[in-house]
Amino acid sequence: MIKFENVAKSFRKQRVLDGISLEIGLGERVALIGSNGAGKTTLIRCLLGEYTHDGRVTVGGRDPRGDRTAILASIGFVPQLPPPLKMPVGQLIGFAADLCGTDPRRILDLAARLGLDTAPILDRQFVRLSGGMKQKLLIAVALGRDARVLVMDEPAANLDPEARKIFFELLAERQEDATMLISSHRLNEVSALVNRVVELDMGRVVLDDRVADDVSLSGLLDCRVLVKRPEPALAKALGTWNFRDLGGGMEWEGEVAGPDRLRFIGMISRYVAVVSDVSLRERA
Amino acid sequence: MKQLWLTAKLDIVESMRARWFQIYTLVFGGIVALLFLFGLTESRVLGFIGLSRLLVTYIQLTMAILPIFVLITTVRSVAGDREAGVFEYLLSLPVSLAAWFWGKIVGRYIVVFLPVFLAMVAAVLWALVSGIEVPWGMFGYYTGLLAAMAACFLGLGMLISAVARSTDMAQGAAFLTWLTLLLFLDLILLGIMIQGKVAPEVAVGIALANPLQVFRTAALSLFDPQLIVLGPSAFVILDAFGVAGYKLFALAYPTALGLAAAGLGYRLFRRGDLP
Questions:
Q1: How far apart are CA B158 and CA A114, in angstroms?
Q2: Nearest CB to B274: which of A50, A75, A151?
Q3: pTM, 2 dp
Q4: What is the number of structural domains in chain A?
């Protein structure tokens, strides 16, 4: 599906990609990880045909630079930082839908599923939306068409737990017919989403590993948290995960999306001094 | 073609929301309003009175403001968009590079040309309402000059944006371009050339390669067809072109220069890194 053959890229004299060769098949969900400056964004830009480079990049056997309209019609992209677009939300949706040959209602429906009510913001400038709203909209634009490749740079970073849960469900719906490339500088952010991990360092692939594909993207975990004493900061944090307080802030209950379990454990570990018991049980 | 119009429309909407466009519109609308306010239609200079007097002053002011305004705002927004990640995202959508680049030029041309043109139209409407005679020939030619001027500096701005990799560099290059054109306006140039004993044809040739000078001379030719105020250089110009020929040259040359610059800019844009 996607093939990088000895891809190299330099900016002035600095080598950013140093002979990357990778093959990614249909249905693979690849985490592209690495520290800042490892070359993740540059590799993505080469894949999108935005950078000139040495070596060869092909998507379905075609060059994304030479055949850009045909290839990019099959790639949904979510950038790490939302662009500061001054155009109204409605126009962005219309523009993207027109170019991608999709129905704008598909994008609106997906945005609604992610918890973004677009009706009151259609005339608002995109740049004036909150970080989470921008992210939801960009995800809706990327998924609201028949993309066979999804390229996402830290896609869930600005989403609240509920929106992340739905985002994972949306990815689960596409996992059979799409290839996903998810970039992050932290593996724990994306590990549960993927079945392959590629780590870049100094422009080279330093790790290419298959990972256990046991975590269902749409799975849920029932969770129960007991605390020694009421703690307002923990209560607030659990509130953002939509947990219910079962008694004076001492006992909490809620559900966590399967791929979000590491993130949840990371959050709860910050309050380890007041937590007396945690249980996470996969829902059958 | 659909992609081109979509991009043009996008650029128009983006520009109309930008502060530079609001200031730009205000400046040219304000100039016309001020000229009326100061009773310029009633004053007389070189036999000019009424709307022709206002148009002469308007075109002179426009020539001073429009080139630098178009150059700076074009490079700022294009290079700024590239730096801010707008290109990274929008060029990940299936739009051809030709449609993107030329669509941006078409959209920007409309937002650059329309305010200066509409300010002039507003002056004409006011004249019609007030019973002031409208010099339609002059209005038509000045419209052509404004269109050529906008095309010329927009093309140069897009070329600079394609070459410069950062907003700062692009702004610096745009300012330097404008300064160079300003430096080679006839008075300075001719003085130096004459001191250096350069052939008048060469001096005038260099001056005429400067679009700023071309506009200036063309605007002058409307109320001074023999270009008396230019002194001896007028003989070279009129010998080479004739009055009508020069008027045509003043429309064709800057437009061709702008298109050539934009064409070169597109070539560089297509061959380089996009974001």
A1: 39
A2: A50
A3: 0.83
A4: 2
